[in-house]
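User: Hi! I'm working on a homework problem where we have to compare a predicted structure to a textbook description. Could you give me the structure for the chain below?
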Amino acid sequence: MMQFVVEPAIATKIEKMAERTRWRDQTILQRGIDQAKLVLDDGKPDTPDFSFLVIGDSGSGHHRGHNPQRQIAEQMLPHRQDCRFVLHTGDVIYLVGSREYYPKNFIEPYREFLVGGENSHRIPYDRMVFNLPFFLVPGNHDYYDLPLIYGLAVQAALPFRYLLRNQLDFDVGLHGSEQGNAYAAAFLDYLKCLSQPELEQHLDRHYTAQTSTGRCLRYQPGTFTRLPNRYYTFQTGGIDFFALDSNTFNAPIPLPETSEGDDFRVELKQQRAQLEKEQRDILLETATLNPAKPNDAERLDDLHAKREQLNEIIRDIDKQLASNEATTDVEQLEWLQNRLIESWQTEAVRGRVLFFHHPPYVTEATKWQQAQTMAVRWRLRQVLDAVAEKIGTLAQGRSIVDLVLNGHAHCLEYLRTGDTGHGDAFTNWIVCGGSGFSLRRQRLEGTELTEPHDNEERLVATSELFLGRSGQGLQKRRPYSGIRIDVKDSCPPKFVVRPFVAEWFQRKWETYEVEPFII
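Assistant: Happy to help. Predicted structure tokens:
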């Protein structure tokens, strides 16, 4: 079966993003600029009590006559005055991060958050300025591309696309993400296109914030709202926030070059063949359904969700078969380790929050056993273990980070780790990936997550809240979601989590809030 989506190698992602931000350019180094840091200059007092919004996996635009993403955006609007910023956990544009779909799948849904949003159709995707800060990280779909022949076919053969409308119910453009270029042009400080005199003037104008690590970018809502890099840090109310690009450290651990490894490779290839057969069966069934009929439309929605899950599992298998540990983003992980140590050694910092795309802990149906999930969890543990060893008694029994926010799994979930035996023990984890794209179900195995340890299964995490697709037929529920988090003046910090939901049920919308909880 033809692979509609291709993903660049990790080394390519790192190289291309470095070129676009002129990472460690001599002119930047001479000015003592920290390219992985920003200061939020919004004119508001930096108080220890503050609030922010979180969304993720949103960029789907309209979906069979309704728009979940816009429903959640409208739920966000009443919170604009009370919240200092929005965190986005990735997958900004489905299916392949195409620049052609930024107007429909980002600018239009979030128009009230953009300067000039009342004329959103006039805003170029690479000239957006936010009136409420949006701090984003890239998701896997923001790096995806299309084979050129497929992009040309989709754009040039509209009758072909119409005939296959049941099979091609997603937004694709001619270009795909261009190896993450669309995301970089939309959100990062794209320095590549500046001449030397322009670069110098730009740096002296926008990189004026003085910090302990040097000058850095000054993020000014309504004026200049670019991000300095694909990963970065900022501080608000005594809390250090760390934004990571998990797409460059999610490569599966290489399979061993042993007979057991060879047997597992054979097993993976057989599993892949079965998954492709299931995909073909789905395509055959969708050809018999009419989206104009309500019952058929419901079935098509289920089939498209299932197909996307199968695609995801196939891509995970392909990553395992091609895994190469040398492609891990060591530089980013070392940066995170050093900055966390510095954060713990800074008396004024009272808490730490990480946000990135791939969740290390999750009970959504397809994610826990994926090799990418295991790889991200293992590499994050290495970092946190090293931090714990370095800071010693400074932690005084606290977790190394107070909260981790992720996307990728299309649901809203709150989990807490127990004694994992690592630096990620007793940590709060929230997956916020249900803000627009097709929702997923919780796994049948339940809410407790275990992993092998000393020849037995050890409980490592428990899910305490899960909102995702549920029910069957007319009783099917699709609760799309986002969250507001109120940070309290305490050390360690307390977080009041306030989920808000727009649920599609029996072909109509209902909006409501879930009971807040404190972590």
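For your comparison, note the following. The chain has two domains: 10-253+323-518, 259-320. Residues 17 and 114 are 25 Å apart (CA to CA). Good luck with the assignment!
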